[in-house]
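User: Please work through this fold.
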Amino acid sequence: MPVYDLAVIGGGIAGLGVFECAGRAGLKAVLLERGAPGRATTAVTSGLLHGGLRYLPYDAGTSWLMCREISRLRRERPDLLTRQAFLWPVYRGERLGLGLVSALHDEYDLFAPLRGARLHARLSPGEAVAVLPGLKREGLLGTVAFDEWRVDVPGLVASLARSAVAAGGELLENARVRALSVRAGSVAAATLEDGREIEARTFVNAAGPWAEEVARLAGAATVRLRLRKGVHLVIGGEPPPHGLIFPGPGGRRIGVYPRLAETWVGPTDEPHDGPPDAASVTAREQEDLRRSLSFVLPDLAARPCRGVVGLRPIPHQAGAAFLLSREHHIFDHAAEGLSNFLTVAGGKLTTYRPMGEDVLASVLGKLGRPAPERAAEGEERGLPWSLVRAGGLAASAGLLSYFAVRRAFAGRGREGWSAFTAEER
């Protein structure tokens, strides 16, 4: 068997991103996937390459990074992306009023040119119902229309795998790692369930929700995750013409995501304390999602549906669930006596490439090779990422406060569906 420069364990979007980056850097790499690439957590994402709207009040830096990645993917793989208009209706008695929701989108408009989106517009109740038939009119105060991008997830997975294999990488499916052999302070080989041994000079654990389990195979104990469970309803039949943002179970904003022949609704965000393989959809979770949907799109909620579940592998951190950072984190296990072993966890579907580039830089350092220059960012150079991140929660909240005050004095802003759709980027 050959000795690879790099063995990547896990074929979700994070592992595929590392695998592709390794191929572009000229490394002899192998991807070890226990099933088929992208068939676990990646397969049950909403498929939305959103620009981080929900993170703006506390993490505008992550929103900027996500919008930058949308811009890059639109240039490089435009056939995989489809523009998706969304409506955010505001009803009487909701905690977030129409003024604050509009202010949030004023801030989001700062990133619109970067992600190729149209500026938001406010719709009257009558116009919102005309644009999205079936939307409940009773109690509706107004609606904000805005843009996102939908990605062909299976197509993206296949594209990344093809690119890496074309560059000389080897992809092994149904290759579950059952042991990691440690010799002289480094991981020497991965033993698969069928008995094969894969030797490599460096190993990256990109096993997502299973990253803790894989790390323990090498005796590493520093990987700690807060697994968050995300459930979607999948409703068959003709999807609505536009997406929708509305309060889900517990008040958390969730989405209605149209697809080719079905609609996804969710996801929830609850802690998962058991083994990753034990995650499942409960009848209560499914019914809670259906009940929440019935308040805004009752006809859609009445259709037959099924539930799907995925787990977010968020690195352990203190704080409330809604404030948990979605940034990726690289664990270098050299401090635990494993000089060539890394784990990557966290991140988002949208930010798979920065994850891959960061991991590759660490891998090349361990191999004694110079890190390649990052892809040219051209017009999206804009704000320095390090500067955006440095502001943290205070800067994000300050930006939203500014737009809220400005909105109070500036009035309603852009109005009407025609105003929203007239501007194509």
Observations:
- The chain has a mean pLDDT of 90.
- Residues 314 and 325 are 8 Å apart (CA to CA).
